[in-house]
Amino acid sequence: MENLNDCCAKIKPCGEAIFISSRIRLARNLSGEIFQTAISDKGRTEIFYRCQSAILKMRKFANGAYCNLEETPPQTSRILLEKNLISSELEQGKGSRGVFISSDAAASVMVNEEDHLRIQVIEGGLCLKALWKKINSIDDSIEKYLPYAFSSRYGYLTACPTNTGTGMRASVMMHLLGLAMSDDMEKITRGLNQLGIVARGSNGEGSDPVGAFYQISNQQTLGFSEQDIIERITNICVKLAEFEQNARQKMLEENPEALFDKIARAWAILESAIMISTSEATECLSALRLASDMGFMPAKSKILIDETLLKIRPAHLSEGKELTPKMRDIKRAAVLKSAIKNLKKPVFGSRKKRA
Ligand SMILES: Nc1ncnc2c1ncn2[C@@H]1O[C@H](COP(=O)(O)OP(=O)(O)OP(=O)(O)O)[C@@H](O)[C@H]1O
């Protein structure tokens, strides 16, 4: 089995433009077993070991890394959370629970989260169709060893009824700063809800869309096939990206001063702050991301910007040390100052015709 840190190091931001990353997760439970919400500690531990033995029969997980969250220091589990390898529900949960990470770090299986199993795959860009093939094959392999709770009428049975059916959430993380700056996101979010789609913040359920990073995913899992859901989310995300491009273009034509001011201020803050919070830093980096997309900074700046967005998050910043919030804010400002030195300052005179 691989070392957890080496495995995590394989996760690298890829500097995509509007479509940052795609994710599919499947919620699965073992047939005849009590759901997490009502199970005893002993029952939870038994489920954990049953799942562990099945998952480790697959080479990609046996050669990957494994983390038992009951025995893991919070600094390590926070790193896994910040890398999106686990959810906050698993991180904050109690009792026997853990995560198995594949050798390429692109797939992970959480055990004893809200459901007995939460299988997930993540990749950069808009690629839900390819991810579906991948996760479907992982799901089939696990099912060879673990019989799933399944009803021919309802589909996969889950701890929360909102996941029953396919048990699938397909999501795309998008950078929608143009729409957010034009105050259109509230209207769009309402429209999406009417279509059974939800726009969450970048940290998932209940999180704020700091920096206009939105995660677009399906709300409905019952009555549709997996392919239908994937096609629907893909089409909607393509449409949203079109709206975003239009919002950027409109801003440039009708109110360039506001756009340039936002970017210039972001640069100035990152260059000179003495202490800075994660959310303020994320907002500023988000503005530079937009500058890079719109041709005011080199396109390749996005790789460094995305790496920095991860580096400034609390657990990554602390590097295993106990830092107070103030110490973190001071260190974050220093990290940003040095990152900025490797970027070209935005120039507003020259730009590509269209982002
Ligand atoms: N497209 C994506 N790219 C990268 N990370 C993602 C993406 N979608 C979700 N995530 C991450 O996955 C984690 C869980 O997200 P979320 O809470 O929305 O879903 P869930 O736990 O699968 O669903 P549910 O709310 O139904 O239990 C979060 O940390 C979130 O940042």
From TrEMBL:
<keyword id="KW-0418">Kinase</keyword>
<keyword id="KW-0808">Transferase</keyword>
<keyword id="KW-0067">ATP-binding</keyword>
<dbReference type="InterPro" id="IPR022414">
    <property type="entry name" value="ATP-guanido_PTrfase_cat"/>
</dbReference>
<dbReference type="Pfam" id="PF00217">
    <property type="entry name" value="ATP-gua_Ptrans"/>
</dbReference>
<dbReference type="InterPro" id="IPR014746">
    <property type="entry name" value="Gln_synth/guanido_kin_cat_dom"/>
</dbReference>
<feature type="binding site">
    <location>
        <begin position="169"/>
        <end position="173"/>
    </location>
    <ligand>
        <name>ATP</name>
    </ligand>
</feature>
<feature type="binding site">
    <location>
        <begin position="21"/>
        <end position="25"/>
    </location>
    <ligand>
        <name>ATP</name>
    </ligand>
</feature>
<feature type="domain" description="Phosphagen kinase C-terminal">
    <location>
        <begin position="18"/>
        <end position="247"/>
    </location>
</feature>
<keyword id="KW-0547">Nucleotide-binding</keyword>
<comment type="similarity">
    <text>Belongs to the ATP:guanido phosphotransferase family.</text>
</comment>
<protein>
    <submittedName>
        <fullName>ATP--guanido phosphotransferase</fullName>
    </submittedName>
</protein>
<feature type="binding site">
    <location>
        <position position="118"/>
    </location>
    <ligand>
        <name>ATP</name>
    </ligand>
</feature>
<feature type="binding site">
    <location>
        <begin position="200"/>
        <end position="205"/>
    </location>
    <ligand>
        <name>ATP</name>
    </ligand>
</feature>
<dbReference type="InterPro" id="IPR023660">
    <property type="entry name" value="Arg_Kinase"/>
</dbReference>
<dbReference type="InterPro" id="IPR000749">
    <property type="entry name" value="ATP-guanido_PTrfase"/>
</dbReference>
